[in-house]
């Protein structure tokens, strides 16, 4: 298809379709738990999981050099504080709105945790969550903010901490401001630094382009694995919760489109141009793995400057994820509240829940299993039993697909709205033909 000049978008959606078909064939032929299927999955994980690992490989270098390069191109300067504040405000604000949407969906569908059958897997997951929550007492907001700061930036370059990406962003920003000061004091050395940064940027973007060309194969393998190993009986038994979750996620995505419209931009254009990135986020369930696609989509298709795109994408990994830190914990809290005699319709409880969800969204999503981490924080703060969060283990992967796509959309919405408000959005790129804006180019 590539040799025949078929567009990148069509190749990605072809990969999705073939993956679904292949997954169903494997599922019907062998069942979700067979040893043959497990062995097959381990082999095509080389393509699917391997692709995600390659994306994760370039996340830190891409974020670091892009933000530093934005300072040398003077796309970040006097408006840095205003830009960062607006991005954070949109991320946290939309998370509070996502909590309201999650609450509404739970009440509309009448979700109640006491109606869900608790088997051995759910009990084991609940005990695991209880043990994990015991070691999280120190995760108050001040401690979460301190976790974002890079005490050792070289450690953060290894990705050793859950908030390593944010640490790299902050370190790059400090170097950027140091560069701006150097320009005023020593222009000769500043020009030398700029040339070195520009050369590294070109090299890293070359690696990004090589990896992104593998996207159709990665999506095919990932979605095939997901469909082949899904427990459709469990999905059917918890169908009401799955349906309520996706209703909430879709409503929140529509709210993203409303924000785009308020910014004076065509929301349909936004949907068309973000489709590949959102599709990969949906199939991979990895916000971090989607970051290179996220940033390239913002810059190459939506007209967002490098600096804004990198800040929005990077902050969106660990702050204010609408799906994992907004919709999901709010829905769980409403479900679990009746099991301990708490009236979920009590105004004080609802207001407290929304505030707790918004505050707890700092530093949550960058952790592996971010939705569970967020749920633990919210349920613990409201004195609700955290073990009941394990009831949904059988449908967790299916719901997490939609949550991850919404998380990525939230960060891209923050980038577009911030760039538009600051007068930095390139409308010619935003409104340009998608056929001439392949993110693999």
TrEMBL record:
Gene3D superfamilies: Sodium:dicarboxylate symporter. Its main location: membrane. It is found in: Membrane. It is a multi-pass membrane protein. The keyword Transmembrane helix applies. The chain crosses the membrane at residues 12-30, 50-71, 83-109, 163-182, 203-223, 243-265, 349-367, 373-393. Keywords: Amino-acid transport, Membrane, Transmembrane, Transmembrane helix, Transport. It comes from the Bacteria. The keyword Calcium does not apply. Pfam families: SDF (PF00375). PANTHER family: L-CYSTINE TRANSPORTER TCYP, PROTON/GLUTAMATE-ASPARTATE SYMPORTER. Belongs to the dicarboxylate/amino acid:cation symporter (DAACS) (TC 2.A.23) family. This is L-cystine uptake protein TcyP. The lineage of its organism: Bacteria, Bacillati, Bacillota, Bacilli, Bacillales.
């Amino acid at each position: 298809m590539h040799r025949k000049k078929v567009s990148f978008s069509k190749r990605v959606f072809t990969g999705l379709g073939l993956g679904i078909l292949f997954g169903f064939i494997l599922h019907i032929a062998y069942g979700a738990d067979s040893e043959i299927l497990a062995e097959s999955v381990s082999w095509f994980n080389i393509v699917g999981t391997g692709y995600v690992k390659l994306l994760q490989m370039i996340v830190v270098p891409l974020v670091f050099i892009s933000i530093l390069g934005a300072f040398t191109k003077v796309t970040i300067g006097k408006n840095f504080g205003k830009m960062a504040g607006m991005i954070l405000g949109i991320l946290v604000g939309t998370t509070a709105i996502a909590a309201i949407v999650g609450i509404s969906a739970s009440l509309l569908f009448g979700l109640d945790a006491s109606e869900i059958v608790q088997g051995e897997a759910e009990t084991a997951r609940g005990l695991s969550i209880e043990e994990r929550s015991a070691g999280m007492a120190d995760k108050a907001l001040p401690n979460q903010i301190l976790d974002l700061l890079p005490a050792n930036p070289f450690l953060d370059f290894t990705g050793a901490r859950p908030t390593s990406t944010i640490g790299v962003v902050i370190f790059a920003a400090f170097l950027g401001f140091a560069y701006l000061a150097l320009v005023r004091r020593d222009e000769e050395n500043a020009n030398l630094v700029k040339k070195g940064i520009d050369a590294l940027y070109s090299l890293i973007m070359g690696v990004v382009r090589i990896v992104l060309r593998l996207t159709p194969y990665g999506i095919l393998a990932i979605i095939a694995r997901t469909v082949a190993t899904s427990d459709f009986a469990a999905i059917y038994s918890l169908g009401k919760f799955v349906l309520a979750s996706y209703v909430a996620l879709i409503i929140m995505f529509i709210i993203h489109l409303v924000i785009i419209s308020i910014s004076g931009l065509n929301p349909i254009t936004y949907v068309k141009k973000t489709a590949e990135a959102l599709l990969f986020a949906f199939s991979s369930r990895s916000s971090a793995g989607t970051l290179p696609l996220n940033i390239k989509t913002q810059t190459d298709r939506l007209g967002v400057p490098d600096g804004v795109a990198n800040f929005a994408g990077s902050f969106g990994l660990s702050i204010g994820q609408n799906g994992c830190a907004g919709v999901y914990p709010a829905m769980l809290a409403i479900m679990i509240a009746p099991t301990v005699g708490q009236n979920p319709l009590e105004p004080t409880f609802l207001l407290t829940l929304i505030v707790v969800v918004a505050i707890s969204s700092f530093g949550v999503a960058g952790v592996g299993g971010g939705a569970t981490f967020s749920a633990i924080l919210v349920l613990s703060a409201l004195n609700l039993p955290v073990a009941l969060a394990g009831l949904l283990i059988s449908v967790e992967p299916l719901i997490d697909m939609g949550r991850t796509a919404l998380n990525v959309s939230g960060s891209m919405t923050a980038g577009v709205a911030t760039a538009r408000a600051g007068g930095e959005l390139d409308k010619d790129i935003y409104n340009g033909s998608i056929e001439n804006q392949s993110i693999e180019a």
